[in-house]
Design a protein that fits this description.
The protein has 342 residues and is an alpha+beta fold. The protein has two domains: 169 residues, Glutaredoxin, CATH 3.40.30.10; 154 residues, Galactose-binding domain-like (Jelly Rolls). It is 14% helix and 34% strand. It contains four helices and 18 strands. Strands 8, 9, 10, 11, 12, 13, 14, 15, 16, 17 and 18 form an eleven-stranded antiparallel β-sheet that branches.
Length: 342
């Protein structure tokens, strides 16, 4: 996370003119003078946004009694994130109790000059932005700024102590391995490695090259090239594949089911089905040992959770024309030798 503090009266906060509000009526910034406001720009299918959510929920729980107003600004990363029903379902599933506004056209996002998900802004009692934090990390530093602004707003009682890190990688000074960067499937930002490349808005017959490079994903079968996704389009009941060589401890995939048709994808890592040792939270292992993901709504699915950071080849397979792939993300872990004992 990159955290930046600003001087008093330097950057005025902008109003939250959104498309739809959850958990409350619209929250007017101008009417909240004297209160400290924390804005979290997030997306329910974004890996980093979801990893930051435990802090948002806990800060809301800890500091709302002292006057902190937490507002989530949901700026969609993919088209399905503009659907209020999808966002409502995610808010309920994720246990978010503070107000959330939909920013479908990224107008609020742009007014705050954001670049990445998630980005947090702290607004002081006078209505000025005093701190902005982009990406993951620096949670302790952000919470310290919350303390400072609450005391400045008139809080006279002692605030709760800073929360413990949710993960080892969140600790101040933690050093992690370099994981494979996020990969997008659509042709606008795509990272496909097949020699066939992209053909916008067309169905392309891809062949598995059998050789995979880090930083690229590969597919096999007939796939429609959409600007935000790849959609399986096989008419002969042939199995299609998504293959990626990656470095990381965890793998997540943003997947959707066309026309809300539920389907399954078989998952193998290094030519083996997943087991209790490395399966992600959304993997089901059948009685015969076959590991699958059941896709029933557009969201991020946790596919692999290895015990250690490493290099692997992951293969997702399906026969369903309902399959839509949007992105793949990879999570690192702390380098054990560099964990501080202090």
């Amino acid at each position: 996370m990159t955290i930046q503090e600003f001087q008093v009266h330097q950057i005025p906060a902008h109003e939250l003119y959104g498309d739809f509000w959850f958990n409350s009526e619209p929250v007017p910034i101008a009417a909240l003078r004297g209160r400290v406001i924390l804005l979290d720009f997030w997306d329910y299918s974004d890996c980093s946004s979801l990893r930051a959510l435990p802090y948002m929920r806990e800060w809301h729980k800890r500091y709302s009694p002292y006057g902190l107003i937490v507002v989530g600004v949901h700026t969609p990363k993919f088209p399905f994130g503009k659907n209020p029903q999808n966002v409502q379902r995610a808010i309920e599933r994720l246990g978010i109790e503070y107000p959330v506004v939909m920013d479908n056209e990224a107008m609020v996002w742009s007014s705050y000059q954001n670049r990445v998900w998630p980005t947090k802004h702290l607004i002081d009692r006078n209505g000025f932005v005093r701190c902005a934090a982009a990406g993951e990390g620096s949670y302790s530093a952000m919470e310290q700024v919350i303390h400072s602004l609450l005391y400045s707003s008139g809080v006279t009682t002692e605030l709760p102590i800073l929360m413990d890190p949710v993960r080892e990688s969140d600790r101040t000074g933690a050093v992690s391995y370099k994981a494979t960067p996020e990969m997008f499937a659509g042709y606008l930002r795509g990272s496909i490695g097949n020699v066939e490349g992209y053909s916008p808005e067309s169905v392309v017959e891809y062949a598995d090259p059998k050789i995979y490079y880090d930083g690229r994903f590969y597919v096999d079968g007939s796939w429609l090239n959409d600007k935000n996704s790849l959609k399986y389009q096989e008419e002969q009941d042939r199995e299609g594949h998504i293959i990626v060589s990656y470095q990381g401890a965890e793998v997540n995939a943003v997947l959707s089911a066309k026309d809300d048709k539920q389907f399954e994808m078989t998952v193998r890592q290094d030519d083996q089905f997943l087991s209790s040792e490395n399966r992600g939270d959304d993997i089901h292992v059948k009685a015969d040992g076959v590991s699958v993901i059941r896709i029933d709504e557009p969201k991020m699915y946790n596919v692999v959770r290895n015990k250690e950071f490493g290099e692997h080849v992951l293969r997702l397979s399906t026969r369903s024309n309902a399959c839509e792939l949007y992105s793949l993300t990879f999570v690192s872990s702390v380098i054990p030798e560099l964990i501080s004992n202090n």
